[in-house]
Amino acid sequence: MNDLLPGRLNLWYDLESAIRNVVEAYGYREIRTPLLEHTELFERSIGEQTDIVEKEMYTFRDNNGDSLTLRPEATAACVRAGIEHGFLYNQTQRLWYLGPMFRHERPQKGRYRQFHQFGIEALGWRGPDIDAEILLVGTRLWRQLGLTGLRLEINTLGSNEARSMFRESLQTYLSGRREEIDDDSRRRLQTNPLRILDSKDPDTQKVLEDGPDLSDYLGDEARANFDTLQNLLTANGVEYHVNTRLVRGLDYYTGPVFEWTTGSMGAQNAICAGGRYDELVSQLGGRGMPAAGFACGLERLVDLYENSGGSDNAEPHDVWICVLTEDAASQGFLLAEHLRDQHLKVIVNCGGGGLRKQLKKADQSGARFAVVIGEDELRSQTLTLKSLRTDEVQIRLTKAELVEYLKPAC
Ligand code: HAM
Fold it and tell me: Which phi and psi (to 5°) does residue 38 adopt?
């Protein structure tokens, strides 16, 4: 779990404001749900045989004996909130969220136990138009942030029947070659065979090459929807690659799934991923409704943004006010409030010190101007203005003149 320190947060602010701009341009509305949910919500949605539920959740009992879990993702919570507040009933919703998620994974670069996701969920549309829209949201965000080199892979998991037929034939095929696949995949053979397609083990991948292909099991409707999705992407200039081995680590997916990866970040290369989950609303007790969405790992996105030239430079303050006596300090605070009313960023020197020391601090702060208030200034009801970034000589001004001078300059 990371501390996000002041120096780095400007990158996050850039990202957060780009995200807000983009999602609002598509009509998505923000939702904020609690960090804690009943454990059962994640067991029923993500699936009991998944890595997340089997070994990565922070789960504990509260004083009432209820089992609670720090949210490992937010899709289930959006659906839970929609059902609870009735805003999914006979309606469509475009939602977005941003916040911390928790998974007890082995930490490494790009993989943390507390991380942040930004995500969107579109509830109530069957696709493939909304599937294309969701992919356009991501594409626009990468463009707005100046990110290049992201690779979009898409696949479709087809209907429940298609998937279960494929699962069966994959299971039969791999059982025949169980000695050749890795331990983890052997374990998954009984519990979650589709996840074996995801295995990073080269021997397992080799065995899979001769195995059944999910695309051969798709029904006409899934195939037609997937074709339309691809046409929409091509017509909108979105580059993509079909990867028939792409499956997801959460059980709720039903149709098209996708993942954006980067080649520049080592093993943790998935930046954003999602897909369609048409069964989840009814599975969690609501009236059945189609849905799709994605979530994006912000730590990974921040790294990528920084590598592509994003800057973590804070805008420096406009003015540093040096105060040389106790009365000057009191006047300094009044002046600072007045300047802040004019939307200037102002620091009043705190902690005392002589003029030289205060001017040095002002200079180091990056502020453009220093204003000095000492006994002379108090007596003559003026202020001394010194430009810290040019050679202009210092000048004496009244408070009104100072405001007039600074407003256009800053
Ligand atoms: P996910 O693939 O589990 O999907 O996570 C989405 C993204 O979150 C990943 O691609 C990655 O960028 C980031 N991420 C996941 N785990 C970590 C971690 N431990 N440290 C840093 N980043 C991480 C979901 O969570 C689904 N809820 C996505 C979705 C939304 N599907 C439909 N709607």
Answer: -65, 135
Among residues 302, 307, 260, which one has the least CA distance to residue 18? 302
Q: Give buried/exposed letters for 151-186 (b at 16+ CB in 10 A, else e).
A: ebbbbbbbbeebbebbbebbbeebeeeeeebbebbb
The Cα 44–Cα 157 span in angstroms is 19
CA quadruple 328, 329, 335, 338: dihedral sign: negative
Cα-Cα end-to-end distance for the chain? 39
> Are 89 and 24 spatial neighbours (Cβ–Cβ below 8 Å)?
no
CA of 168 to the centre of ligand 1 (A): 28
Query: Is the CB of 295 within 6 Å of ligand 1?
Result: yes
Residues 6+ apart with CB under 8 A from 26: 94, 133, 136, 137
Tell me how far apart the alpha carbons of residues 283 and 277 are, in angstroms, rounded to a whole number.
10
358 lines ligand 1 (CB under 6 A): no
- Contact between 349 and 358 (Cβ < 8 Å): yes
Whether cis (ω within 30° of 0) applies to the bond prior to 72 is no
294 lines ligand 1 (CB under 6 A): yes
Note the pLDDT tens digit of each residue in 144-201.
Answer: 999 999 999 999 998 888 888 999 999 999 999 999 999 989 988 988 899 899 888 9
- Give backbone dihedrals phi and psi of 353, rounded to 5 degrees, phi first: 105, 155
Question: pTM of the full predicted structure?
Answer: 0.91
Distance CA 353, CA 357 (A): 6
Of 276, 271, 256, 284, the residue nearest 76 (C-alpha) = 284
Q: 274 CB less than 6 Å from ligand 1?
A: yes
Q: Which atom of ligand 1 is nearest to the CA of 111?
A: 20
* pLDDT per position as a tens digit, 95-148: 999 999 999 999 999 999 999 999 999 999 998 999 999 999 999 999 999 999
